[in-house]
TrEMBL record:
This is cyclic-guanylate-specific phosphodiesterase. It comes from the Bacteria. Its EC number is 3.1.4.52. The lineage of its organism: Bacteria, Pseudomonadati, Pseudomonadota, Alphaproteobacteria, Sphingomonadales. Gene3D superfamilies: EAL domain. It comes from Sphingosinicella rhizophila. Pfam families: CSS-motif, EAL.
Amino acid sequence: MKIIDRLTAFIIIGVCLTTALPILAAIALVRQQALEREDAHVTGLARAALSRAEITADQLSAGGRLVGGLTRQQACSDEGIDLLRRIDLSSTLLQAAGYIEGDVMICSSFGGNKPRNLGLPDFQSRTNAAIRTDVRLLDPDLPYLAVSRGAFVGIVHKDLALSFLDDTPGLGFSIFSWSHRQPLISRGNIDSRWFRAEADGDIVFRTGSHIVAIVRSSRYDQGAMAALPLAFSSGFIRESAIILIPIGIFVGLLLSAILIFVVRTRMSMPTMIRNGLKGSEFNLLYQPVVDLSSGTMMGVEALIRWRRNGKDFVPPETFIPVAEQAGIISLITARVFRLLAEDAPHILSERPFFHFAVNFSAGDMHRPGVVEEVRRFASQSGIALDNLVIEVTERSLVDVNLAGETMRQMRAAGIRVAIDDFGTGYSSLGYLAQLHVDYLKIDKLFVQALGTDSPTSQVAARIIEIAKDLNLQVIAEGIETKRQERILKGLHVGCAQGYLYGRPMPLDELLQLLRRKGSVRRLEAA
């Protein structure tokens, strides 16, 4: 498969993924939110039913306290009947109140002294209340719930107790005895299998047709159940989908657009670099390197810069990695050498012993014949080989053996070698012992941490100790303050560069600066 075909396939797959994944994620989120809303809704319904049941239980308990201490004669006297009627009228959920002996309600708030047999209890609750779930009074077709404790009995209308709840078709409710899993009052579609014996507290579960929530009272031996038809959940899904699906589509399209833009940029960047080299859009700036002890400028680092069409500045951290990946970094290095060969005679006329530092990438260090290229450049530019420093970052040492051999050949030719940005890459101390280098450049990250409470504030001192142990010269980068300079002098660092001494500048500014300064000291190697 051709490279362009692979790139096209990559873009198509990438666009499909970046478009589809946010939409699929939105769909999953819609479903999850719908489930959470369903659970919260059905649990809220169950709690509302339980609240109603607890109010009923509170009213039964209050009536029991008033009647429980009365004798039969007292309860069924005129005053006692009036008391039962007051209990009935003051209770919002009780339909009647009465005095019971055995299974017979001797007197009541609605029947006076006319006794009524309520029948045997269905079961006894954990709190010793006798529960009758099918009591018939005036209307033989209308069942009531009767709850008695001691001599007091309360009558509850089974339809009215839950009448306040949602009347959605298919929605079911039940108030039940927790210890017996026996329904007391139910409304709607309730399956007996839903009274889960293993539930110890609140629970939500799904059956084939319903979402069921069960909640337990903390004060009474009772629980409440609400059962919501699954078809009802489509409303929740629709409401969430209206918001989330368009967001997913928007994010998917946005990510696809970003992917296409990035890929097109990366694909076109090598061509832009080639065109920029042909169109002389690259130029050199020079940043001074000074002797810390005297403040004398000893040399400069040559820095390549790219200004597209004479106006748009492209940072090196953008185009250098692309050039490395595209295999055209050698073209940029060649441009650095050509521009420096043009500028160097002007600089050397002012300072014959001036040294020049040039950055090399991994591709440069691994390229066969690179040492001979440097020799030819030095001959063309008039720069003595021992005034030339090749700077290599730790991250460039991909193949340590090959890079080490290149360094050895350079030093044998008299060219000096520096490890740049030391401490930020992945090389080990063992590599330093293997490599043939002259200088160690401390990264500005560690220099600027000097004298602060930063965790990296002591790193620079450790690097300086390492350099001394390996008999290497140290150059500190990124010095911006006099305080940093004083600390580095105290650590016996020989050379430095940074904004304190000068920003990267064009050739004209460098020449003016050299004419204002004194003599230049030769940079000593290790």
